[in-house]
Amino acid sequence: MYASAAIVSLILFGMGTGALILGISRFRISDASFVARRMFYIFACVFIWDAGYAWMGLCYDSPLAYFARGIALVGIILYMIAVLEYVGELSHYPRISRYSYYVVYCIASIISLIKITGKETVTFRMTPWGYWFVSKLNWGRYIQFGCILVSILFYFVILSYWKHSTMLGREHMIIKRFMLFAPIMFFGYIFDTLLPSMYNMPAIPGSAVAAFISAMLLYGISRRYKAFGINENNISQYVFRDVSVPVLVMDANGRIVLWNKIANKYFGRTDEELRDHTEDELFSLPDEDELIEEIEGEEVYVVQDRDEYCRLTRTEYYDDFNDLMYRICFVQDVTDMRIAMREMCESIRTAEEASAAKSVFLANMSHEIRTPLNAIIGISEILLADPDTRDNSKQQIRHILEAGDSLLGIVNDVLDISKIESGHSDMVENEYSLPDMLHAIGGIIRVKMVNTPLQYIVDADPDLPKMMVGDEMRIRQMYLNILTNSIDFTEKGYIHLKIWGEREYSGIRVYTDISDTGFGMHEDDAYHIFDAFSQSDAHRKRNSGGAGLGLNISLKLAQAMSGNITVDTSYGHGTTFHVSYFQRLKNDEPIGEEIAKAIRSDNYEFKDKQDDFEIRKHTGKKVMVVDDSKVNLMVAKGLLAPYDMEVTLVSGGREAVEKAAGQRFDMILMDHMMPEMDGVETLRAIRDLGGYNLTVPIIALTANAIDGNREMLLAEGMQDFIKKPIDKKLLNDIIDKYC
Q1: How far apart are CA 93 and CA 35, in angstroms?
Q2: What is the pTM of this model?
Q3: How far apart are the C-alpha atoms of 134 and 192, rounded to whole Å?
Q4: What angle do CA 32, 36, 41 make, to 5 degrees?
Q5: Which of 40, 330, 675, 700 is 20 to 30 Å from the Cα of 344, by its Cα?
Q6: What's the pLDDT tens digit per position in 548-585?
């Protein structure tokens, strides 16, 4: 009898311990997840329950039997709470209802526990299954029965709530399995609770066994419940099945052993046609001429029997002996990318060819336009410096010079491709006279209006500073673009320029309104008026012939000077451009009422600007000027005259080489673009003469002012660079440096 009792107790203790170990391992493996925590609580209660009864069965007429039974009863109470909480969390049953029940349940259970553990209620007998109790019916026992039945009923209430609150089929299946818990527990209570109380017989450890069985049932259901979601154990199945690219798994011999469904569709092959094949049977490298079009560093393959291209991403897996087990290959389709790359390469080649053609065109245009400008500006400066020029002619010459300077500024901006493409122009700040600038602009505008009935009106605020610091050439260009636009599209009336300013820290913000009585513009045309190559419908009626760059360039110039240009217009009622920009100040002397009135009446007395550099004589020095334009040679001779040097004029490269071979020059000014022999070829031929010609300073003199031309000429061996039209100060600095 004692042996069988020990076996039963050992079985109970083994079930409880096994449950506890399973709960702990599940808790550790699952990183304390919700399900793992709740299952741990349930298994811990099973351990307390079964271990208490196992100990009680071995007490053998010891008072400790009452204590061991009390421990088991505590396990029963906690077990029911743990089960209800587990199911309640899964079903999202309201917590306040659950917790309220737990409080009532615990109070009632403690009261019954106190009553049913006393010696007057419980006695013990030795049975084949151990030292087990015989209990009498009393009100404490009835409370215990009530707690058990109400808990089972509440368990069904929670399941019913869950069933009606979910639409998921998998959860309905889980709920059906949870229903088995109640019959198992009720069946166990029959043997150690109901029968001993009703028939005065020793209890049989049915509830302890039922607790273990029901706990294992909950564990199995929880594993099934978790299997419905994605976790670290099954995520590879989802990824492998649903990943949007073909995936191939190959063994150590390179044979394909596994693939996803997308691979069948991508390769156009059945399972039998993929199984045990190798990479070489699916992919091949493209031809070398095709590889040229691929992105550098990327290995691209052609899919066999299909006009598709792909990239392969391989990952290798090794065992503990460092032997290759499997290779996983992800196939990324790059057919569309390759087509786009080919089109992009073709577009780049086309763009580069167009850019090269544009650069050649602009270089030629720069030379062709700047060459006559060099003559216009150079001869004008020579005539103004000539004391024999009559005063009444100087005013006209000044207008020619001012127009040439303004045109040069426009050419510099339009023909400089690097500045146009970058969208900005560098500001060169110098001190300038505002009245002189307004007078110069007025001279050009009035010439444009000679054959029109238009009137040009300038209102300058007398409080404006007389001297400002900024890029006078850019400001002139900005005003001339807008004023020319107004002239082109105004048939009668006037063009009105009103200028004023507001002092700011270290400078002044200049405001200008340029109004006309022209056609005006529609709202949609005004919206696009500052777009490059854009002209309104009204503009096209006049057939101005403009390219539509003027206003776009003017806006960028204003923005470069921390300003802006806006427009107010309505069709048939004229246009007003609002211009603002910032200028620095060195002094704040105003132009005054007298000058403001003179500017308005076009009676302002313009004074010739004096050169701000000193011309030193270089008597006896010999300079050769090489240029294929006779006018440019005349201009150069006139500009060199004040230096009292011996000037030799040469119209071609061959003649220049002959002159250099026959006499020694202190400096050579060399045109770049010449027929037969250009400047660089002439430079090399002169250097080949040897002797003093190896070191004679040869200065590039060119109308090709495209960015990069200076660097190219200096790299070819030129000592310095002067662009046409010739800047007198730069020429003076170079003469002082090399002569």
Answers
A1: 16
A2: 0.42
A3: 9
A4: 105
A5: 330
A6: 567 888 888 899 899 999 999 888 888 999 999 999 99
